[in-house]
UniProtKB/TrEMBL annotation:
Exostosin GT47 domain location: 96-421
Family statement drawn from the similarity comment of this UniProt entry: Belongs to the glycosyltransferase 47 family.
Entry keyword Disulfide bond: no
Topology of the protein relative to the lipid bilayer: Single-pass type II membrane protein
Transmembrane portions of the chain: 39-60
Protein name as annotated: Exostosin GT47 domain-containing protein
An annotated GO cellular component: Golgi membrane
Length: 466
């Protein structure tokens, strides 16, 4: 499939190529729905994710829906939309949202709100997963000029599934008639369930809700019609948290993604399994910035350019518990502490610095480069925080971003990021200092975004031709 030459020049995450669904369908086998799901969900994400180019506000789904929880419980406040599509784009297939029992979503949110100490995500489920509103843009250096408003929230990375659900509930291509739908979304808050049951030693209890969902879906004629191949989930945690194997370590995971019913579905996840994720597709972690208007975006771009940078590189993170990844992180922290050109923020259990959005953004926006070594898993929400702060990400593994988010990342990583191979990791400062300042400036501009265009890199990300 190819878009026009002009589309290729101007293609971006939320500006669609002129595909025709009729011609698209002719290009694939009638029995194969995965390519169709990939394309349609990609386009759907342009409306419904936190990337915001179409300036959705934060609407609650229909109050009559059994999957919606009360606005009061969620701490939701209504906002006026700056721009909202009223009709479905003919190039986007209609989709249906399954009405499932509240215990699969709304009840999990209510449980979180009533047990805030249960897990780290629970204090952040308010505002439909956006979390606590921040009073100003994170500019600790010049609070007098800070831009006040509600574009910034203390959003937890695990609330991606809630944000996704909130958007699709009012999407113009949603159909209430399952017979008219091409795709089917199952609004299971699998990540919230995992978080609440991470310490559950009894595997039967830990897996129970996932098994109940699979049993419910398999009882539906519309699911059995294509064995779930036209259905999809969105989960807010790494896929490994849903892939517990008897042969592997426990790590608090359940078996959701290994169930036969789910194996045929498409799974949108903030981290796909690099080797076993045949039906998994990476979607970006939500960050703190949720602009409602183009002015919000332009204002933040201007703020980043006005402030500039003061240090060569920064690292926000800790050593972690994974022995394989601890060595590189220990080395990074040591190198950062020894350099007056590095800004370190060390994360340790019991310390709250790494949960402070203002501190994190202030540190990252002051550095040219932000180090992104793998953490407890390959990916890091910090990658998206860094590009939001105008900080060029420095990777140590291709699985941190390049193999994860192919729907979103530009095809030429060297224009917006740095990859350090093992031989370069003991002299990080020297390696980064070798990059010419003019090249650093071009890379930083690629991350921030051009003035007058569609927004910073985290909001408008060039797509690969597919």
């Amino acid at each position: 499939m190819a878009s026009t030459a002009n589309d290729k020049e101007k293609s971006s995450l939320c500006f669609f190529s002129s595909y025709s669904f009729s011609s698209f369908y002719r290009e694939i086998k009638p029995s194969s729905l995965l390519p169709r799901i990939r394309f349609v969900v990609f386009v759907l994400l342009c409306y419904v994710l936190w990337l915001r180019l179409l300036f959705f506000s934060f609407p609650l789904g229909s109050s009559s829906s059994s999957t919606s929880y009360s606005a009061a419980a969620a701490g939701h406040r209504h906002h006026q939309l700056s721009r909202s599509p009223e009709t479905c784009d003919p190039d986007i297939a209609p989709f249906y949202i399954h009405t499932i029992h509240p215990r699969f979503n709304a009840a999990l949110v209510r449980r979180c709100l009533s047990r805030l100490a249960c897990c780290d995500v629970c204090p952040s489920v308010g505002h439909l997963g956006l979390g606590r509103p921040l009073l100003r843009l994170p500019d600790a250096a010049d609070a007098a000029d800070a831009v006040r408003g509600t574009a910034w929230y203390a959003t937890h990375p695990s609330t991606a599934e809630m944000l996704f659900h909130a958007r699709v509930q009012r999407h113009p291509c949603r159909t209430m008639d399952p017979e008219a739908a091409v795709l089917f979304y199952v609004p299971f808050y699998a990540g919230l369930h995992v978080a609440a049951n991470f310490r559950q030693a009894n595997h039967t209890r830990r897996d129970a809700l996932a098994l109940d969902l699979a049993a419910h879906l398999s009882s539906l004629p519309i699911f059995r019609r294509r064995a779930g191949r036209d259905h999809f989930l969105a989960v807010g945690r790494a896929s490994r948290d849903f892939m517990r194997s008897p042969a592997g370590p426990d790590m608090g995971a359940n078996r959701l993604l290994l169930l036969p019913e789910v194996a045929n579905m498409t799974v949108l996840t903030v981290e796909r399994h690099p080797w076993e994720g045949h039906n998994q597709f990476g979607i970006p972690y939500p960050s703190y910035f949720h602009p409602r208007t183009a002015a919000d975006v332009a204002e933040w771009q201007a703020e980043l350019r006005r402030l500039g940078t003061t240090h060569l590189f920064a690292f926000v993170g800790g050593v972690g518990s994974d022995p394989e990844k601890a060595d590189i992180r220990t080395s990074i922290l040591s190198q950062c502490r020894m350099s007056d050109r590095c800004l370190p923020v060390e994360c340790k259990p019991g310390r709250h610095k790494c949960n402070d959005p203002e501190l994190i953004m202030d540190v990252m926006r002051r550095a040219d480069f932000c180090l992104q070594p793998p953490g407890e898993s390959f990916t890091r929400r910090s990658t998206f925080d860094s590009v939001l702060a105008g900080c060029i990400p420095v990777f140590f593994s291709e699985h941190t971003a390049h193999t994860q988010y192919r729907w979103y990342l530009p095809s030429r990583p060297a224009e917006w990021s740095v990859m350090l191979d093992p031989s370069q990791r003991d002299q990080i400062e020297d390696e980064l200092a070798r990059i010419p300042r003019a090249e650093v400036g071009r890379m930083r501009e690629a991350v921030i975004g051009s003035p007058g265009e569609s927004g910073p890199f985290i909001i408008n990300i060039e797509t690969n031709d597919r």
